[in-house]
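We were asked to recover a plausible sequence for a given structure. The inputs and outputs are reproduced exactly as logged, with field labels preserved.

PROBLEM: sequence recovery
POSITIONS: 288
GIVEN STRUCTURE:
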């Protein structure tokens, strides 16, 4: 028996060879493995990078339900002076704050927040982090210490979403002033879980998202609803410079040859039972 010792970084590795081994074949085998190692290492690196980039983000859509202008002003002040700054201190820089068009005349006023999370850990740990932040407690003391008979809001609604595979929150590329823009939040409810998955497939593998990108819809996010009042459901947000631009983009979408082909496929029939559209405008302090 022949003993061969390899030393790598001072770590010895022993290989025992039979005296009857064909050394020509053995040498060829060793050479082949040495040549393939860089290739395998490259594949491993690509896989690691791909995994890290394709890890799905989480999004929270938080909705403040308000009864009057006074509550709206209080929540505006809290978000602008306390909440957005503490989110930045926790590494969340792009928090969108929006109000529905016609909010001033609505019976119930609403303020929408879009909060992106890099991971489940960040989402679940955030509340504890905020409670430990003394500056946050100081900046938002009027909100935190509100009396039971002088509340700053009626209710808070929360929707948790998981980003579509290999999609990420995008900052819109628009030229006009922030407060003049139109953000369109859409939700597509599925008749069943199976048909809902079919609609998600239509967006991803069917490349419906590619149509939005190609036609310049400035998509902000695409996500599957994990928790909310209406599931199964997916939601996504697109953005435009104004309503005229929005209408023109959707007109182009409806006549797009690829969309016509995609929407006519029997495989994707009847996968949406209800669709909802909310038109939003960002506040002057919104991060998106």
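RECOVERED SEQUENCE:
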């Amino acid at each position: 028996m022949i003993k061969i010792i390899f030393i790598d970084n001072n770590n010895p590795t022993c290989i025992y060879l039979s005296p009857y081994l064909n050394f020509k074949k053995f040498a060829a085998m060793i050479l082949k493995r040495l040549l393939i190692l860089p290739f395998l290492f490259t594949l491993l690196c690509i896989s690691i990078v791909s995994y890290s980039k394709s890890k799905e983000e989480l999004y929270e859509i938080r909705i403040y339900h308000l009864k009057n202008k006074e509550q709206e002003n209080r929540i505006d002040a809290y978000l602008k002076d306390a909440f957005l700054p503490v989110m930045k201190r926790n590494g969340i820089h792009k928090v969108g704050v929006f109000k529905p068009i016609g909010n001033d005349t609505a019976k119930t006023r609403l303020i929408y927040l879009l909060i992106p999370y890099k991971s489940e850990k960040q989402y679940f740990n955030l509340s504890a982090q905020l409670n430990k932040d003394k500056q946050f407690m100081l900046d938002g003391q009027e909100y935190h210490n509100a009396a039971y008979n002088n509340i700053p809001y009626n209710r808070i609604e929360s929707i948790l979403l998981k980003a579509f595979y290999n999609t990420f929150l995008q900052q819109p590329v628009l030229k006009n002033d922030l407060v003049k823009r139109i953000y369109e939040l859409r939700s597509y409810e599925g008749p069943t879980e199976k048909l809902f998955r079919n609609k998600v497939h239509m967006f991803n593998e069917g490349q419906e998202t590619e149509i939005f990108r190609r036609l310049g819809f400035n998509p902000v996010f695409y996500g599957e609803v994990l928790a909310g009042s209406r599931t199964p459901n997916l939601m996504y947000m697109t953005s435009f410079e104004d309503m005229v631009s929005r209408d023109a983009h959707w007109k182009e979408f409806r006549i797009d040859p690829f969309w016509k082909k995609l929407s006519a496929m029997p495989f994707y029939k009847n996968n949406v039972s209800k669709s909802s559209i909310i038109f939003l405008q960002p506040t002057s302090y919104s991060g998106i």
